[in-house]
Write a structure and sequence with these properties.
The chain has 257 residues and is an alpha/beta fold. It has 7 helices and 9 strands. It has one domain: 3-Layer(aba) Sandwich (Rossmann fold), CATH 3.40.50. It has a 7-stranded mixed sheet with strand order 5-4-3-6-7-9-8, sandwiched between helices. It has a two-stranded antiparallel sheet with strand order 1-2.
């Protein structure tokens, strides 16, 4: 990996592939609501889904684990508590969220690496990660970026490594999920003036949830083997689906690309 630059808030900015600033959909649709995010996830029953994702990943001692869309660090901290010898890395476009995650890690005495970046442009070498996690982030990506992010996850995984993803089911959003969608559509980061919703940057047009069949199709399109939906859980935000996809482990005597 390239040598990162670390800001005063402890968030690392990889120097060799420092990402451009561009629009993104923040947690809860508004940076001012960030401090309420963890309480909100507990209220709607998402915390149990985050635990389930970490358990599903089967993290082993010494593994390198990357979460894309790490936000305030809840899943990262769960993973680090579960397997203390794992190297746990979180990436997110929201520097404020990463700084919040850093403060939580320091408070809990846990070591994390937190990087500013985007899911479709990961600043990590090929085959450098054992597990990639994504928790309730996939619907934040515009349609064109979804498969690009999955391709990047495939690229950075070791042969035999796996992606573990949980996200809202686009076909069963739930009452709070529908309210969240409306709030995102009217979030105050959206461009002002005469600009219509169609003219806004894609990342600011609101969540783009996908059906289970579509998520599995995109995983396979990105190059993953044995991509499948492996479970579901009902929350106040709607039904969430769990997915698993593996990067092919080459047969003995062959070399991975």
């Amino acid at each position: 990996m390239s040598h990162p630059m670390t800001s005063q808030d402890g968030v690392e900015h990889p120097s060799a592939s420092s990402p451009e600033d561009r629009p993104y959909l923040p947690a809860m649709g508004n940076p001012r609501l960030l401090r309420f995010y963890d309480a909100f996830t507990r209220l709607v029953g998402v915390r149990s889904a985050q635990w389930q994702l970490v358990a599903q990943a089967g993290i082993a001692p010494g593994h390198t684990v990357l979460e894309i869309g790490a936000g305030t660090g809840t899943v990262l901290l769960l993973a680090k508590r579960a397997v203390g010898s794992a190297t746990v890395i979180g990436l997110d476009p929201d520097v404020q969220a990463l700084a919040f995650a850093r403060r939580r890690a320091v408070h809990d005495g846990l070591q994390l690496r937190l990087d500013h970046g985007y899911a479709d442009r990961l600043p990590y070498p090929d085959g450098s990660v054992d597990r990639v996690l994504s928790a309730l982030m996939f619907h934040h990506l515009p349609g064109a970026e979804k498969v690009a992010a999955l391709r990047e996850a495939h690229r950075v995984l070791n042969p035999g490594g796996s992606l573990h993803l949980v996200d809202l089911d686009g076909e069963q959003p739930g009452v709070i999920g529908r309210l969240m969608h409306r709030r995102h559509e009217h979030n105050d980061q959206a461009p002002r003036g005469d600009q219509s919703p169609a003219d806004r940057p894609a990342a600011l047009r609101g969540p783009e949830t996908a059906s289970a069949a579509d998520v599995v199709r995109l995983m396979r399109e990105a190059g993953f083997d044995e991509a499948c939906a492996v479970g579901r859980r009902r929350t106040a935000a709607g039904v969430v689906r769990f997915y698993r996809a593996e990067r092919d482990n080459p047969q003995p005597g062959t070399r991975s690309t």
